[in-house]
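Fold this complex.
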Amino acid sequence: MRIVISEFMDEGAVARLAARHDTVYDAGLVDRPEDLRRRLAAADALIVRNRTQVNADLLAAAPRLRVVGRLGVGLDNIDTDACGARRVAVIPATGANARAVAEYVICAAMLLLRGAYASAADVANGGWPRAALSGGREIGGKTLGVVGFGSIGRLVARLGGALGMRVVGFDTQIAATDPAWKDEGVEPASLDALLAGAEVVTLHVPLCDATRHLIDAGRLAQMKRGAVLINTARGGVVDEAALAAALGSGHLGGAALDVFEREPLPAASPLAGCPNLLLTPHVAGITLESNARVSALVAEGVEAVLGGAHAAG
Ligand SMILES: NC(=O)c1ccc[n+]([C@@H]2O[C@H](COP(=O)([O-])OP(=O)(O)OC[C@H]3O[C@@H](n4cnc5c(N)ncnc54)[C@H](O)[C@@H]3O)[C@@H](O)[C@H]2O)c1
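Structure:
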């Protein structure tokens, strides 16, 4: 079987695949679309992260394709309808990077609330901004608002609870009577109530029509003065210009963004220069440990489909 891998993958998992299959691993293929299409002509499987756009057009270049492995969980770069129509299975790494994202969220919340960690250059140069940095806040006793109570949202809730936070959650697909809320010690709430009551709001919903700009100027205005917002879900869930305005006016106390409407950010993003803003390049789900877990899980799932296809002739 031929497997094409178009973005970076854990080397150990690639080696295991290469030992059993004709495997093309080139993490730069995603940036060379014509090369990728050429490689796909004879491919039975394609493994991607979040940058390769798997749409009907790309599938047309891959007539033998049986399975797409996704090294992550969001499927917004994969046209699942087009895959379904072609009977191409889609294998995401469900749950395998949840721990990495959840730890990122808790760390960002603590950094933003405390606001004291950006002083290295000043202190090393003899500065002593002690008075300016004495207004930091503790995470214990604060209210954590979790928007989207799926695998990552639940783990964030558990970690927040362990630090002494009160946790409220909002999820359109999970009834208030569902035992999952109680199991995790989380109070179900409306989005309005969550935004009005939380000092830390963290987003864990998929990007779809219902969640595009879910957090817009109106929603940001509903948040408590001084509250912080963390988005590790998908860029389109937050209106970036509205967020920049809310930070600039001092209504929000800070924000951490790992995902953006356009990645990389365009020049002159309204986010440039905003106070107490942490920006990372879509790495919340990527650690050494999660990369190994995600890659192993996807490799296993892809091989299971190929094995089944093989057995079926
Ligand atoms: N930054 C990263 O590196 C990174 C890594 C992993 C996942 N993600 C993103 O994190 C998000 C969550 O991932 P997950 O694995 O927890 O997904 P999940 O499917 O387990 O959970 C998503 C939850 O959102 C809920 N939901 C759907 N629509 C909603 C709406 N309109 N309002 C409120 N809730 C809604 C669903 O019911 C579900 O419980 C996804 O967007 C994913 O793409 C980012």
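Residues 98-279 form a domain with the Rossmann fold fold (CATH 3.40.50.720).
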